[in-house]
Amino acid sequence: MPLVGAILGVMLGALLPALAGAGGRDIPPQTGLLWLRSTLPAVFPLQIKTVAGHDYHVTLVHGDTRGETLSAFIEGGDFFRVLVPPGSYDLHVAYGAHWQDEQALFGAQTRFFRLGAPLRFETRGIGTKAGHIVDLRTLIETNGASSVSPMAICQRFGADLTGSPLSPPAFVPMLDDLHAPRPRLRFTVTSRICG
């Protein structure tokens, strides 16, 4: 047993400095949400397209309060979609090659970009949650060009009659007895990307 402990100690001693880097600064987070500071539900879609070779730190700043609402890290080329609270937001992007941390970002080589127009996340009509697709794939080459297109989640509400007395062919008409138990309907919500 002491031999196993010694072997594990040597292995951990060799791995930990490599994993820690410079205090953990060289290890970028995985693609995804870093934090969300909102009491509102995050239900509106935001998709960001990037190109491999650089990593991205994205922040949404609320248009009215000027407070940072959401922050995410994207490894260039990874698929990234997140749900955002309702409101109007400015999109701030920092990008570079060597991630350090959330304060230093990519160090002295950090490049910054701010999307020209605010992104509005809202409900449109009945059951449509409107969001955006932001394409940053040309950002590196053109030093500031990007495109924004609409994206939405459409929801359809329906009654689930499976196993219900109202499902065919076992339809049971309502009885004249007001105290008779009534069938309870269950409702379902179906969501899909629709634009």
Cα gyration radius (Å): 25 Å
User: CA-to-CA gap between the ends?
Assistant: 61 Å
Shape estimate: elongated
Largest sheet: 11 strands, mixed
Proportion of helical residues? 10-25%
Structural class: mainly beta
Q: How many helices does DSSP assign?
A: 2
List low-pLDDT spans: 14-24
Q: Mean of residue pLDDT? A: 82
What features would you highlight for this structure?
195 residues, mainly beta, eleven-stranded mixed β-sheet
Q: Can you walk me through this structure?
A:
It contains two helices and eleven strands, in the order αβββββββββαββ. It is elongated and about 80 Å long. It is mostly beta strands. The longest helix is centred in the first third of the chain and has 19 residues. Helix content is 12%, strand content 42%.
Question: Helix and strand layout, with pairings?
Answer:
Blueprint: H1 2-20, E1 32-36, E2 44-49, E3 55-62, E4 68-75, E5 81-84, E6 87-96, E7 111-114, E8 119-124, E9 128-135, H2 139-142, E10 147-160, E11 186-193
Parallel strand pairs: 2-9
Antiparallel strand pairs: 1-4, 2-5, 3-4, 3-6, 6-7, 6-8, 8-9, 9-10, 10-11
Compact overview of the structure:
The protein is mainly beta and 195 residues long. The protein has helices spanning 2-20, 139-142, and strands at residues 32-36, 44-49, 55-62, 68-75, 81-84, 87-96, 111-114, 119-124, 128-135, 147-160, 186-193.
